[in-house]
Specification:
The chain has 319 residues and is α+β, with helices and mostly antiparallel strands. The protein is built from twelve helices and 15 strands. Among the domains are: 111 residues, Uridine Diphospho-n-acetylenolpyruvylglucosamine Reductase, domain 3 (2-Layer Sandwich); 89 residues, 2-Layer Sandwich (Enolase-like, domain 1). The strands form five sheets. The protein has a five-stranded antiparallel sheet with strand order 6-7-12-8-9, with helices on both faces. It has a three-stranded parallel sheet with strand order 3-5-4, covered by helices on one side. Strands 13-14-15 form a three-stranded antiparallel sheet. It is globular and about 55 Å long. The N and C termini lie far apart (66 Å).
Length: 319
Amino acid sequence: MTSCLRTLGTDGGPTEHHAEEDATVQVPAQVEYEKAATVEQALTLLARYAPGARILAGGHSLIPMMKLRLAQPEVLVDINGIDGLRYIKRAGAELRIGALARHADLLAAQVAGDHFAILHDAERVIADPIVRNWGTVGGSLCQADPSEDLSAAFAAMKGTMIIRGLDGSREVSAREFHTGPYETVVGPAELLTEIRLPIRPGGGNAYQKVSRRTGDWPVGAAGAAVWLDGDVISDAGIGLAALGARHFVAAEAEEFLRGRPATQESLLRAGEIAAESCRPVSDQRGPADYKRHLAGELTARVLRLAVARARGADGLGQF
């Protein structure tokens, strides 16, 4: 007898998979399981089984990839039992986020929203409550999906990643953390433990995305941070997701804005430069030309909102 699994195809329509034709559909390969109680134990396990081990945090990205055999780790190291990696707090002039903080934690954290509205903007449009309640901030960043919302947000804010190994910790800029699609600088026996964001005066930030349906991956998304000296932009950060931006950053547009007045004309031109510098690809979510248009439009929109927030307004009627 032939069994049949009904799933959604790339166009959103139903697709049938027959077990006789494809016996591996939605079935992960065999994998060993280890549960770590401390960071040191997790690092020891990673070193022992490297390079065949993968960290299991929320699992909302890794498990589906394992079911499709796009990821086939030999060992899963579960770190959910580790105390001390789930926190969101201010330490001096920094916001510090533990790698095991859940998306829902970040969305609910007032200290994050007070200084980084961009994080609440992004978290509101990430997936759904079920995913946000269990998925982790660190796991999302380490998955390194080119469409990841938080990667663009942290790049715009010029954050720092703390990576720990058995020999100690090291700091890496959020802009250097991702080396390519699904690739990061985290070594096979290392663990991302914390994300740090500098709290700077005179700034505002924002994030917006366009997706095919609520909670979906973005067709295109942009995050922006600006710091004002009067009416002049002293510094700017622009992050793009799903739009082919190197390291999620629109560096040329940032450079254009520095030292310029925070006018409608400046922000629109920055959007045009961001669109010109990104390299989107055509896929089931839209053609490259449409995504390039989104890059320019979304960049200008989040810049306007970021400037308005820096000025202490809600973004309405500022230009």
